[in-house]
TrEMBL record:
Family matches, as Pfam families: NUDIX
InterPro entries, per database record: NUDIX_hydrolase-like_dom_sf, NUDIX_hydrolase_CS, NUDIX_hydrolase_dom
Name the UniProt record assigns to this protein: NUDIX domain-containing protein
CDD domains: NUDIX_Hydrolase
């Protein structure tokens, strides 16, 4: 097994989570990315959110929601993505920056717009009451 290790930011508004689609991708992902050598999860979260969305995560506000593993989108079978998910307060308004082409607010009923791995995270968020589902 091979793992892609990443960190994701869970930004929820009105029962939907912020998703980001980078150029050339057919699905949305939870904003975040891979660690640079020597970075902690929170360092990665702060760097990636600043680069991709142009907002600053407030120091000391990051809380781990969980770590999830699933088949990595667009990779051969057996390549898994391990995603450490964090909620965090921030300053600014998220805007598509850098490699990000489009932002979208995704509810649980729209989970087909995200990767399989991020869909599992949306399931957990729904169970925790962070996302809403239409009756």
């Amino acid at each position: 097994m091979r793992f892609i290790d990443r960190v994701a930011w869970l930004n929820v508004r009105e029962g939907k989570v912020l998703g980001a689609r980078s150029r050339g991708n057919d699905v949305f992902y939870l904003p975040g990315g891979k660690r640079e050598p020597g970075e902690s999860d929170v360092d990665t979260l702060r760097r990636e959110v600043r680069e991709e969305l142009g907002v600053d995560v407030l120091t000391g506000s990051a809380e781990c929601f969980g770590v999830f593993e699933a088949q990595a989108h667009g990779f051969p079978p057996g390549v898994l993505v391990r995603t450490a998910c964090y909620t965090a307060e921030f300053v600014g308004e998220p805007t598509a920056c850098g490699e990000i082409e489009e932002l979208g607010w995704i509810g649980h009923e729209q989970r087909g717009l995200v990767s399989v791995a991020d869909g599992l995270i949306l399931d957990r968020m729904l169970a925790a009451g962070l996302l809403w589902s239409r009756p």
